[in-house]
Amino acid sequence: MSSDDLNLDDILAKGAQDADYNGDYQAGFAAVIGRPNVGKSTLMNELLGQKLSITSHKPQTTRHRIHGILTTDAYQIIYVDTPGMHLGGKKSINDYMNRTANSAFVDVDVILFVVEAGRWTDEDQAVARKLKGADAPVILLINKVDKFENKEALLPFIQKVSEQLTFDALIPVSAYKKIGLQAITDEVLKRLPKQAAIFPEDYVTDRSTRFLAAEIIREKLMRNLGNEVPYGATVEIEQFKFDEEEGRWLVNGLILVERPGQKQIVIGKKGELIKKIGSEARKDLIALLDARVHLELWVKIKENWSDDARALASLGYDDN
Ligand SMILES: Nc1nc2c(ncn2[C@@H]2O[C@H](COP(=O)(O)OP(=O)(O)O)[C@@H](O)[C@H]2O)c(=O)[nH]1
Ligand SMILES: [Mg+2]
Description:
Helix content is 33%, strand content 21%. It is α/β, with parallel strands linked by helices. It has two domains: 8-190, 3-Layer(aba) Sandwich (Rossmann fold), CATH 3.40.50.300; 209-314, 2-Layer Sandwich (GMP Synthetase, Chain A, domain 3).
């Protein structure tokens, strides 16, 4: 999953488009930080106007760091979506996700700390504590304000959060209702350095299409499964190529689970669930690749992959 991804160091070394630098252009990184399930990925997708990062109502849907790049004539904002920082969960995969989240706010220009309107938990508290040591300015985004009809009702919550951390700006937002998105861009731009674009202008992410394809399949898995399987499942792309003759993409996805019972659940009665997952994933893959797609999914048992450092690395959980 990682070998064919773009290498940020290579891109930075090339100096991007320094020659064209006009003196006013702004570019930099904005890390999206917070506990699981506050809406970080949904928000990033809305800011980009494009679905890059997978989302679901289950915590820990995002496992990898992913850059979403927004380029205009005046600026390039590179949003860094991260797995939610979480407590509990003692497996190697939990370590991996927390390490990924922790490393994401080093070397960024702005931190967007996302919390959920009306809900402040121990995990938010833990993130707030971490942010005290951060160098970059923190903008607090209170997401899901659509849940509150009356803005006044939010005041006690804002008061409480203000006592827990210091932040540079506070913006009530709703990814669902697209409230506050322009304010986020404005506040980020106030803090973004003047420099040339970091990525070429046609790049929307630092991840390969193959990686995005695996993530799409994993999203459909997360969304279709009950609570017993999602955390024990991952996806590996075995074949990803364009068939010139047929004029379509051939994608083979291998779904790895940890136990025979989980395999049965993913397949479903008479194969119905895996069929549903496949047809939902295919739809998104067609949108991603802008072409016809032939998708085949297999399920295999790989015991203990989520707590085995070597297995994790071979499955692409090695990028921080
Ligand atoms: N009501 C409401 N729900 C939202 C909003 N943004 C995200 N969600 C939901 O919150 C859940 C978690 O979203 P996700 O983006 O995966 O959260 P993440 O774990 O922080 O990346 C999903 O079910 C989203 O649909 C919002 O603005 N309002
Ligand atoms: Mg996420």
